[in-house]
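In the design runs reported in the main text, the only information available to the sequence generator was the tokenized backbone. The following block is the verbatim input for one such run; it is reproduced so that readers can re-run the procedure and compare outputs position by position.
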């Protein structure tokens, strides 16, 4: 439960230690203050002399005072605070305002955390009551400062300009009407210019309405923390920013949860999870002069499961989830129609490469791929993403989809990190990915990809390419039947890569959110059964 209106969250010390709440805040939530009043029984009885000082009268007064104290304690103790929150529905996320405007979403409502009622503004359906054999999860109702306010202040999310257009429409972005000529007409309302860092918003909306959400905290098998760590830290990754700015929100969130939610302290966080909508390395700063925040390295985060678009393969609590793409179906039939479309699509190119070179890197690997494409004799289709050509809502993005739809294979080198969204854009289009680093997919998305890498992809070690191996020759060795089977496997797994449009998901098909929820609940259930705790 957020502080009452007019009572701010605590300031954090520059040394990142747990600092005491201001006195005003302590008077609200700390039961200890009710045992340190200036009440003087002697003065009370002296003033009201008609009260008998008979021992029996004193005993009655003492019992009444004790009852009042106990009632006050129960009302403000964190355990009872949590119980009163059980029927308190967290908000769904707001749709963005005019994306062309530089003003933040809900600009007319510029209230801060001190005056925001986080239960207001939006509606969502109640969770379904069946199909949750692995248990159910409880959604913490955090103050809007930790999620909705970050989203609605979209014009401050990046030092390079407003992100209101990118994160409009509850995180899906603007409708991608520019690609209508490349897709079946009946699916025109399923494609959006979705930003690759929107997963925190997408997950939050879905989990509020998920069939496995419970409104009863005591019965929950897991607890979801709706904190937009990625959107918040994105404001401070470039330019002259301090480590205090990069760490502040994560520290405040953890301090808030530890103080008000007994379930976190009971398990030391091992049955809690959150979505961090960037790569793991943005949250793993070990020294002040390094990149990013130190959120993952904070002591209270050591047992919390983190869902990220790129994980650290050597951290059990990092879980890789698919990058959001532009395809967000409304129904099961939308999914089936798209799968049928890409499966039967006639493809005219053997392989393709979508990306730009990294001119600042010596022996740039992408440059080698581009050269091989150019020397392939027409077998390779290229989309050169130098500059901003491949940014969302540009003609370049439409060309990307058409290129993947037209190619049997798509080359997937590492991006700025080991992964890139293009992996999932490629497979959504039914193209077979070719990897050069195992960490690009095989060690990242185990819950979402087939267990046998060779069943849906090709792996060519980068050193082989550097030593002159022809990618074209490797791919031409696959028979038509082998290519057909690999494509069928890719298309079979498309539902696991998508983020469905409806807040309550699809009908019988499980999308990326459903798969992630099942994975978290299964992991926690197994830990409980085996008596294994971090």
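Verbatim output:
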């Amino acid at each position: 439960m957020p502080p009452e209106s007019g009572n701010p969250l605590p300031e954090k010390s520059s040394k990142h230690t747990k600092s005491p709440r201001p006195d005003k805040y302590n008077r609200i939530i700390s039961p200890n203050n009710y045992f340190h009043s200036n009440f003087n029984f002697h003065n009370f009885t002296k003033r009201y002399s008609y009260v008998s000082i008979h021992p029996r009268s004193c005993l009655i007064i003492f019992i009444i005072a004790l009852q009042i104290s106990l009632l006050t304690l129960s009302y403000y103790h964190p355990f009872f605070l949590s119980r009163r929150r059980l029927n308190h529905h967290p908000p769904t996320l707001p749709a963005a305002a005019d994306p062309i405007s530089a003003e933040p979403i809900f600009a007319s409502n510029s209230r801060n955390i001190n005056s925001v009622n986080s239960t207001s503004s939006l509606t969502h359906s109640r969770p379904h009551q069946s199909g949750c054999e692995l248990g159910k999860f409880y959604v913490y109702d955090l103050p809007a400062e930790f999620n909705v306010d970050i989203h609605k202040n979209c014009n401050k999310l990046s030092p390079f300009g407003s992100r209101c257009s990118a994160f409009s429409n509850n995180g899906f972005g603007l409708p991608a009407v520019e690609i209508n000529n490349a897709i079946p007409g009946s699916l025109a309302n399923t494609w959006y210019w979705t930003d690759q860092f929107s997963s925190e918003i997408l997950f939050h909306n879905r989990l509020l309405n998920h069939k496995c959400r419970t409104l009863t905290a005591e019965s929950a098998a897991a607890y979801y923390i709706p904190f937009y760590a990625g959107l918040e830290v994105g404001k401070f990754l470039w330019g002259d920013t301090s480590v205090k700015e990069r760490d502040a929100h994560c520290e405040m969130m953890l301090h808030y949860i530890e103080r008000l939610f007994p379930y976190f302290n009971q398990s030391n966080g091992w049955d809690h999870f959150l979505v961090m909508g960037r790569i793991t390395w943005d949250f793993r700063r070990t020294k002040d002069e390094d990149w990013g925040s130190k959120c993952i390295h904070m002591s209270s985060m050591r047992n919390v499961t983190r869902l990220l678009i790129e994980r650290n393969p050597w951290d059990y609590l990092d879980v890789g989830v698919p990058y959001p793409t532009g395809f967000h179906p409304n129904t099961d039939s939308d999914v089936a129609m798209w799968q049928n479309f890409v499966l039967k699509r006639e493809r005219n190119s053997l392989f393709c490469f979508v990306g730009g070179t990294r001119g600042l890197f010596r022996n740039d690997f992408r440059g080698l791929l581009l050269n091989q494409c150019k020397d392939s004799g027409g077998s390779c289709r290229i989309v050169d993403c130098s500059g901003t050509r491949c940014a969302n809502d540009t003609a370049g993005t439409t060309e990307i989809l058409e290129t993947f739809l037209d190619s049997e294979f798509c080359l997937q080198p590492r991006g700025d990190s080991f992964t890139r969204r293009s992996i999932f854009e490629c497979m959504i289009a039914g193209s077979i990915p070719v990897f050069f680093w195992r960490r690009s997919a095989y060690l990242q998305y185990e819950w979402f990809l087939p267990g046998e890498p060779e069943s849906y992809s090709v792996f060519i070690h980068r050193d082989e390419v550097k030593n002159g191996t022809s990618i074209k020759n490797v791919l031409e060795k696959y028979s038509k039947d082998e290519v057909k089977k690999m494509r069928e496997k890719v298309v079979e797994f498309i539902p696991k890569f998508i983020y469905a449009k409806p807040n309550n998901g699809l009908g019988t098909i499980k999308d990326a959110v459903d798969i992630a929820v099942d994975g978290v609940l299964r992991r926690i259930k197994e830990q409980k059964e085996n008596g294994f705790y971090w």
